[in-house]
């Protein structure tokens, strides 16, 4: 039951090769993260994400948010290995909504829903308050059922916006229209 020197050397080489590969992957991750962090000098940038535009569609008390962005090419490999959880977290940090729910995400855009983003005053009257973002948004579009407001190079949606819910129109079947002149 003594040690077999050949087997020991073979296992030792395999173990060393595995450690070297793990170390190489770790170095790649560190380099790509530090390179993207150093390059993040622009105001419309957060880490490896550059925001292109944000569209907010107000639907009663809910805000449906669509974000277009680009990610550094060096990080695409990391997404392939580790998934998009870090991208999701960074986008949530950019948007600065505590209760945003992600609906869809890819490497160029994402959709979020924020329930109770607008305050209801009853009878279909809503107020979407001012909101701060954590980066400069090159093009910010906020759309209610009545109007659309567009802002350029803003870090916030200033002053808020009042709006009315879409009126619910009752559809009268065509037969009733013909029978009841």
- What is the beta-strand fraction? 35-45%
Helix content: 25-40%
Structure class = alpha+beta
The N- and C-terminal alpha carbons lie at a distance of 104 Å
What's the alpha carbon Rg, rounded to whole Å? 26 Å
Mean pLDDT: 83
Net shape: elongated
Query: pLDDT under 50 segments (min length 5)?
Result: 36-41
Order of helices and strands: HEEEHHEEEEEEEH
Q: How many DSSP-defined strands?
A: 10
Search tags:
3-stranded antiparallel β-sheet; alpha+beta; 7-stranded mixed β-sheet; 181 residues; 32% helix; 4 helices; elongated
Tell me about this structure.
The chain has 181 residues and is of the alpha+beta class. The protein has a domain at 45-164. The chain is 32% helix and 38% strand. It contains four helices and ten strands, in the order αβββααβββββββα. The strands form two sheets. Strands 1, 2, 3, 4, 5, 8 and 9 form a seven-stranded mixed β-sheet that branches. A hairpin with a 3-residue loop joins β4 (100-105) and β5. The longest helix is centred in the first third of the chain and has 34 residues, at 5-38. The radius of gyration is 26 Å and the shape is elongated. The chain starts with a helix and ends with a helix. Residues 36-41 have low confidence and may be disordered.
Topology at a glance:
Layout (H helix, E strand, L loop, with lengths): L4 H34 L6 E2 L2 E11 L2 E10 L4 H7 L2 H11 L4 E6 L3 E6 L4 E2 L4 E4 L2 E13 L4 E10 L3 E4 L9 H6 L2
Parallel strand pairs: 2-8
Antiparallel strand pairs: 1-2, 2-3, 3-5, 4-5, 6-7, 7-10, 8-9
């Amino acid at each position: 039951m003594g040690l077999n020197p050949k087997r020991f050397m073979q296992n030792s080489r395999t173990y060393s090769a595995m450690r070297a590969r793990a170390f190489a992957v770790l170095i790649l991750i560190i380099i790509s993260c530090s390179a993207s962090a150093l390059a993040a000098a622009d105001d419309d940038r957060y880490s490896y994400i550059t925001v292109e535009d944000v569209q907010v569609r107000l639907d009663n008390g809910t805000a449906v948010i669509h974000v277009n962005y680009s990610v550094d090419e060096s990080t695409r490999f990391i997404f392939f290995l580790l998934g998009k959880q870090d991208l999701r977290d960074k986008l949530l940090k950019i948007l600065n909504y505590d209760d945003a729910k992600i609906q869809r995400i890819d490497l160029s855009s994402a959709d979020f829903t924020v329930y109770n983003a607008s305050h209801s005053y009853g009878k279909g009257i809503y107020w979407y308050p001012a909101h701060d973002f954590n980066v400069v948004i090159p093009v910010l579009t906020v759309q209610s059922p009545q109007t659309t407001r567009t802002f350029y190079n803003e870090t916030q949606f200033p002053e808020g916006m009042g709006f009315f819910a879409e009126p619910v129109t009752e559809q009268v079947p065509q037969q009733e229209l013909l029978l009841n002149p």
